[in-house]
Amino acid sequence: MFKEFIHKFLEVYFDDWTVFGLVKCHLVSLCLMLDTCLRYQIALNLKKCLFCTPFRILLGHVVCKQGLMVDLANIAAIVNLEAPRSVKQLHATLSHNRYYKIIKSYAQITMPMQTLLKKDATLYWDEECQRSLHVLKEKVVTAPILVFTDWKK
Hints:
Layout: E1 10-13, E2 16-19, H1 23-39, E3 55-58, E4 61-64, E5 67-70, H2 72-79, H3 87-96, H4 106-115, H5 127-141
Antiparallel strand pairs: 1-2, 3-4, 4-5
């Protein structure tokens, strides 16, 4: 239903929609999207809607006229993430990055850390785990990690 709008003035990620464009075109684009919502009886929660903003935060990223960028407020917490010293901290480290499982090769990158979560495994943080954490942090803070859906596939 929104296929013709995707990548032209609309991006969709599950139930997060972003209408973007220059001010003179933005209102026309917004009307097209809202008319489509009416036609297909899609209800919007106005309390969650933002209109005519120069940028917005979407899944930890800033969407603005320059494109998709990492939110600087999140970078410090991720960059300063230390190596876990317990299984509980390891769980926290991996769950801290749970929104980023869309990173290409996420399972391969985190495999050394995931191995430490297996039953009867001892927490031995070696160089491979440290490299894994470093690569994960690097991927998380490098824009863009979000890839918009290719609706043709």
